[in-house]
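quick q for whoever's on today - can somebody do inverse folding on this one?? i tried earlier but teh output was garbage lol. tokens:
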């Protein structure tokens, strides 16, 4: 037996921690919880000698067996050490640090008028159609369906998605080429790992672009190379001068600038990819939302062997579902599946619910109604900006769930954002989206987050902020 350290007396009497025992699930569980919490947050430091079980039992009118059982449980878990002839003392547990609220982060506050991009109006979520889909899945799935499933995604969803993407986004897909993930960020993590294993070290990204999505590639040591974007999309001339194995683009609605990639640029980009045997990742995050014409078909449809198509349920339904998909070229399907095999898939129930939801036409119905709501919001927002902030130049594409407004006056982006924050208006600027040197200042104004009945008052609040800066 080793040397027993001199046990300390509790810094605060143990009885203080036991005053308000939470006995919801019994005295023993409450006692264990109180002692665990006091040890974790450092109030009972290592080597503190605890009162005997007899003392605690007498002081708190507990059965001694209850206290003994609680002490024994905490000994097994490693919080306490029982030593014969000495008593029970606190083990050396790393105290947990309190998490400090992330106040300065524009994504972590809950403004009264929320014009940040990135989320659809939660009030539009088709709750009853979705819960009917989940109910059908739960009653129709046999017991075997509750086991582990194909990590690439369930066959019914993969074939439903192949059909849906074919008709709605002109994607060339079969069930075999579709893989299901827990969000685009998760899908990009799998892709990054697959690229890394294949020896790809550099990836071109549009500049500006969504920083936290592109950063996923750096987790697997890929270097991001910024490429400028003009009013036709990513600069292929610039891309030509680089040595990269892949390029990440948003052709339907560039994030954040809102440009739709022109037909010439699409063709030049594909020529570049073929000549360099490079992969193109088409991030089609909000391609279903086009208001002035039918949605423009995917880039992937023009070359399914070089383009990896990435779609998500986050904009068209809700980011809470954490469902997204990739359609991958044949050459990549095997290597990606190997990575997926090891790192697992997503909830079977949610996958089957999405398949059911699409098969019954609920997604088409939902998109028809939300498209018309967002189109009206976009028009109102756009008209308001033209009237009250002529110093903002709004992107022309009638698409997506945000509009990009370049600051063309003496106002400066940081001042606009802080005036908005002070007025409890959520707004995001181009700033964090630049990877290289910024070439413009501007605002990414999302119009999908406010509840429908609050949109008018939210717009009034935004108007006040912009007018105060005129
Ligand atoms: C440019 C872009 N791509 C993809 C996504 C979707 O991400 P996820 O599927 O992880 O929610 C978003 C969401 O904000 C986005 O803005």
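ok took a stab at it. sequence:
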């Amino acid at each position: 037996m080793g040397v027993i350290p001199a046990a300390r007396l509790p810094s605060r009497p143990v009885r203080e921690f036991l005053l308000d025992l939470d006995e919801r699930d019994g005295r023993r569980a409450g006692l264990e919880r109180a002692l665990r919490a006091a040890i974790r947050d450092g109030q009972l430091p290592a080597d503190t000698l605890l009162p005997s079980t007899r003392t605690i039992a007498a002081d708190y009118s507990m059965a001694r067996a209850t206290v003994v059982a609680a002490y024994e449980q905490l000994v097994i878990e490693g919080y306490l050490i029982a030593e014969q002839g000495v008593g029970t003392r606190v083990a050396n547990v790393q105290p947990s640090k309190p998490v400090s609220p992330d106040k300065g982060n524009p994504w972590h506050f809950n403004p009264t008028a929320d014009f940040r991009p990135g989320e659809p109006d939660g009030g539009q979520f088709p709750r009853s159609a979705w819960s009917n889909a989940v109910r059908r899945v739960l009653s129709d799935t046999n017991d075997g369906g509750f086991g582990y499933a194909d990590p690439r995604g369930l066959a019914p969803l993969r074939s439903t998605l192949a059909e849906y993407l074919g008709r709605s986004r002109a994607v060339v897909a079969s069930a075999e080429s579709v893989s299901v993930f827990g969000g685009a960020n998760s899908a990009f993590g799998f892709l990054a790992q697959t690229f890394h294993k294949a020896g790809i070290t550099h990836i071109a990204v549009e500049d500006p672009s969504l920083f936290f999505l592109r950063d996923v590639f750096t987790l697997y040591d890929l270097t991001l190379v910024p490429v400028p974007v003009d009013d036709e999309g990513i600069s292929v001339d610039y891309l030509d001068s680089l040595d990269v194995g892949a390029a990440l683009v948003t052709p339907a609605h560039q994030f954040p600038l809102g440009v739709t990639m022109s037909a010439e640029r699409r063709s030049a980009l594909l020529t570049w990819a073929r000549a360099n045997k490079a992969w193109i990742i088409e991030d089609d995050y909000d391609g279903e939302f086009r208001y002035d014409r039918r949605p423009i078909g995917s880039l992937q449809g023009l070359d399914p062997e070089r383009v990896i198509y990435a779609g998500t349920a986050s904009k068209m339904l809700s980011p809470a579902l954490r469902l997204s998909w990739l359609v991958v070229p044949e050459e990549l399907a095997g290597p990606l599946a190997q990575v997926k095999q090891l790192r697992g898939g997503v909830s079977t129930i949610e996958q089957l619910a999405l398949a059911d939801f699409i098969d019954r036409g609920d997604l088409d119905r939902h998109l028809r109604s939300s498209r018309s709501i967002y189109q009206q919001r976009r028009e109102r927002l756009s008209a308001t900006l033209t009237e009250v902030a002529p110093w903002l130049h709004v992107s022309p594409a009638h698409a997506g769930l945000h509009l990009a407004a370049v600051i063309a006056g003496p106002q400066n982006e940081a001042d606009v954002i802080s005036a908005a924050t002070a007025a409890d208006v959520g707004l995001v600027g181009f700033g964090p989206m630049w990877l290289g040197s910024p070439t413009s200042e501007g605002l990414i104004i999302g119009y999908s987050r406010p509840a429908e009945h609050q949109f008018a008052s939210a717009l009034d609040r935004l108007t006040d902020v912009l007018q105060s800066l005129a």
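fwiw The longest strand covers residues 223-230. also The domain at 125-361 is CATH 3.40.640.10 (Aspartate Aminotransferase; domain 2). so keep that in mind when u check it
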